[in-house]
Write a structure and sequence with these properties.
Elements: H1 2-14, E1 18-22, E2 25-29, H2 33-53, E3 60-65, H3 72-87, E4 93-97, H4 105-110, H5 125-137, E5 142-148, E6 153-161, E7 169-173, H6 183-191, E8 194-199, H7 202-215, H8 220-241, E9 247-251, E10 257-262
Parallel strand pairs: 3-7, 3-8, 4-7, 8-9
Antiparallel strand pairs: 1-2, 5-6, 9-10
Helix pairs in contact: 1-3, 2-3, 5-6, 7-8
Length: 263
């Protein structure tokens, strides 16, 4: 694994890194050598060991959660790159994003929920649970939706997840994954073999999420109002669920990590 780790260090720390679409904004994702050695590689190796402990033909379900502005999308993209590199297989890891399971805007408007988009009642959690259970079983390919930041709508049939025999690891990324706000969300939480939580202080998460919304064209007043309606209540709900995580990474204002806890 030493050679692979050295190659990965060149790719993620010294070369161009990877481009990630985070909340509709293209971000150049790089990590420092220290972050790679102290955080990404230990987590990647922990995931690979857990996957190898699974019975033959079954897949490892890994949840990645944390607040809006917590860096979930960038972390997941870098982690997928690390895992594929270390496993020497581009097909070994797939990603499912919770954002694709938002109800369509017409449904939200019909239910008077459009201003609360992002809260648990605006997510089709039953469809997410159904798809994740099929993905966990791994006996048939599953095509999951994505979320268009252009249309601001879920787009069906965008992301295929192959059979477990060819794709032994699936990372599921999104808010509220480790909560028990409803029986369905509690069942979603219990599907994961491994839970990773990105723990970012609330003021930092608030600054990040509001800044990217302003960059996307929304006013400061609108972003602050949305944060109060949606993102802050979600932060409180997720903070209560982080004690169920197997791995907790503590983030800082520099978009890097300062601590890791592995249960």
């Amino acid at each position: 694994m030493c050679t692979s780790a050295e190659d990965l260090r060149t790719l993620l720390c010294h070369d161009a890194g990877i481009t990630v679409l985070a909340a509709g904004i293209h971000v150049r994702a790089l990590c420092t050598v220290n972050s790679l050695q102290s955080y990404y590689l230990p987590v990647a190796e922990h995931i690979i060991k857990a996957a190898r402990r699974q019975s033959k033909g079954t897949r490892l379900m890994v949840g990645v959660s944390g607040p809006a502005g917590g860096g979930k999308t960038v972390f997941t993209a870098l982690m997928v790159t690390a895992l594929r590199h270390l496993l020497q297989s581009d097909s070994a890891v797939s990603v499912v994003a919770l954002d694709g399971y938002h109800h369509r805007n017409a449904v939200l408007e019909e239910r008077n929920l459009r201003p609360f988009k992002g809260r648990p009642e605006t997510i089709d959690s039953e469809a997410l649970l159904r798809d994740l259970q099929m993905i966990k079983d791994g006996v048939v390919p599953v095509v999951v939706p994505s979320y268009s930041r252009v249309l601001h709508e879920p787009v069906r049939g965008e992301c295929p997840v192959p059979l477990a025999s060819s794709c032994p690891i699936v990372l599921v990324e999104g808010i509220l994954l480790f909560t028990n706000l409803t029986p369905v969300f509690a069942s979603i939480r219990d599907l994961f073999h491994l839970r990773i939580f990105l723990d970012v202080p609330e003021p930092i998460a608030r600054q990040r999420v509001n800044a990217r919304k302003v960059l996307g064209g929304r006013s400061h007043e609108d972003t602050e109002a949305h944060y109060g309606r949606v993102d802050y209540p979600n932060f409180v709900d997720m903070d209560r669920g982080k004690n169920t995580a197997d791995i907790v990474l503590t983030g800082n204002e520099e978009c890097s990590f300062t601590n890791i806890f592995i249960r």
